[in-house]
Give the backbone structure.
Amino acid sequence: MTAQEVVQGSAAPVRWPIAEILKGGRVAIIEHAGEEYRLRLTANDKLILTK
């Protein structure tokens, strides 16, 4: 099941563990409306989303 299928089939917020998103890395690329965004885990263990 894709994230899009989960969102479309549910009114509840989708919960994804960050470890599942980053797969052991520190950066994930998220695509939305033809644009790429970077979700980055900082040295202080915070998340930053940038375009």
